[in-house]
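Proteins fold reproducibly. Next comes an illustrative record:
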Amino acid sequence: AGLSLNDEAEVRVAGYANDPLKGKISFVNPQLVAESKITLVRIEIPNRSSLYRPGMQAYVVLKQNPHKALV
């Protein structure tokens, strides 16, 4: 089960942690760093008031869509 475009994410930006944002995955890098199992993911969040800037730290919880499967 991998990450997919438009999967939901909850984002809490440092300094604004009491104001969680709902975002969606807009990009998943197809290359995986094998040693660390890390890949780059872009999540788009609303930023109408321009509070959030590139490079700000955030905590993210990814919410993958459940899939039905035969077991």
Q: What stands out?
A: The beta strands are 8-13, 21-28, 41-44, 58-63. The mean pLDDT is 87.
